[in-house]
Design goal:
Layout: E1 6-12, H1 19-35, E2 40-42, H2 53-59, H3 67-79, E3 82-84, E4 88-92, E5 95-103, E6 109-114, E7 120-123, E8 127-130, E9 142-145, E10 150-153, H4 162-170, E11 175-179, H5 186-202, E12 205-209, E13 226-228, E14 234-237, E15 243-249, H6 251-260, H7 263-266
Parallel strand pairs: 1-2, 2-3, 10-11, 11-12
Antiparallel strand pairs: 1-15, 3-5, 4-5, 5-6, 7-8, 9-10, 12-13, 13-14
Helix pairs in contact: 1-3
The chain binds 2-acetamido-2-deoxy-beta-D-glucopyranose (5 copies).
Keywords: Hydrolase
Family: Belongs to the carbon-nitrogen hydrolase superfamily. NIT1/NIT2 family.
EC number: 3.5.1.3
């Protein structure tokens, strides 16, 4: 394998109500992923806490000084890997965020992404779920370099906003990682579709990392953590139990696709444009 190729591991963690147990399981699986050759490892959305607005304040921690983050930093260093810390509820200045951190092999914080698009729905008599009642939105695009490639980050609902992924591609990202917990309706219909769509629109690798399914939880996640290549092909996919999904990322495939179907150079930027309004 060329030095720019690498093995990615997605940890479809079983998340329960005991925070230290969640973190402990995550650390053990990170070690397993490393033993099995991963250089980049990612955890799911909300991996130290059950998913739900009523849990966020109880489970929230400081980033990067909280205990969960400190354990992630240590794990990245001990295993000599790039570690994408799924997401945790973050508390900062009295505000809560849904936050993904990325750590380098020296234990350094490489990036901090606060979920940009908050999920609010209210269908009377059916379902009400308002993240914005408890969470604040981030306003930053978040990407970082590894020796293998540039990685962009989004969280769950962020995956539905194609402009964000397009901008990451324009910024040079070759892999986008979205920790996310789709539900039992949107999961089967949209999870793989959106991952493959973002991969195909932007000709890059996509990884979606879900928690494992807990049937009696308040929020039942679809699972199916998935890696898609720049052709839109599913390279690896979990079912719903706790497991690690492995994928060998070959970046020459990305260059081949971009040469074979040159959409980025043939886009008609003279008649339309996608641009970032903030830095
Ligand atoms: C982080 O690790 C330490 C040492 O093992 C442990 O005491 C602590 O509970 C862990 N933090 C969390 C949030 O689980
Ligand atoms: C939570 O998990 C930790 C680590 O596995 C364990 O030591 C502790 O006893 C658990 N707490 C409860 C209340 O079950
Ligand atoms: C984290 O801790 C360091 C060292 O104590 C401090 O300088 C920094 O401000 C803290 N960061 C946050 C976000 O609290
Ligand atoms: C987001 O961007 C603003 C402006 O560049 C910066 O002040 C802030 O620290 C960033 N927040 C995070 C979480 O990176
Ligand atoms: C999942 O979320 C969708 C979109 O908000 C909603 O329409 C649906 O009822 C939810 N499904 C379940 C099983 O909660």
């Amino acid at each position: 394998m060329s030095s720019r190729n690498f093995r990615l591991g997605l940890i479809q963690l079983l998340v329960g109500h005991n925070k230290s147990e969640n973190v402990k399981r995550a650390l053990n699986l990170i070690k397993t992923a490393k033993t099995n050759g991963c250089q980049v490892v990612a955890l799911p959305e909300c991996f130290n806490s059950p998913y739900g607005t009523k849990y966020f304040s109880e489970y929230a921690e400081n980033v990067p000084n909280g205990s969960t983050c400190q354990n992630l930093s240590k794990a990245a260093k001990e295993n000599n890997i790039y570690l994408i810390g799924g997401s945790i509820p973050e508390i900062d200045g009295g505000k809560l965020y849904n936050t993904c951190t990325a750590w380098g092999p020296s234990g350094e914080l490489l990036a901090q992404h606060r979920k940009v698009h908050l999920f609010d729905i209210d269908i009377p008599g059916k379902i009400t779920f308002k993240e914005s009642e408890t969470l604040s939105a981030g306003s930053n695009f978040t990407f970082f370099d590894t020796p293998f490639c540039t990685v962009g980050l989004g969280i769950c609902y962020d995956l539905r906003f194609e402009t964000m992924a397009r901008i990451y591609q324009k910024k040079g990202c070759q892999l986008l990682i979205y920790p996310g917990a789709f539900n039992m309706t949107t999961g089967p219909l949209h999870w793989e579709l959106l991952l493959r769509a973002r991969a195909t629109d932007n000709q890059l690798f996509m990884a979606g990392v879900s928690p494992a399914r807990v049937e009696n939880a308040d929020y039942v996640a679809w699972g199916h953590s998935t890696v898609v290549d720049p052709w839109g092909k599913v390279l690896a996919k979990a079912e719903f139990d706790e497991e690690i999904v492995y994928a060998d990322i070959d970046l020459t495939a990305l260059e081949e696709v971009r040469k074979s179907i040159p959409i980025s150079v043939q886009s008609r930027d003279d008649i339309y444009e996608v641009k970032m309004l903030t830095k």
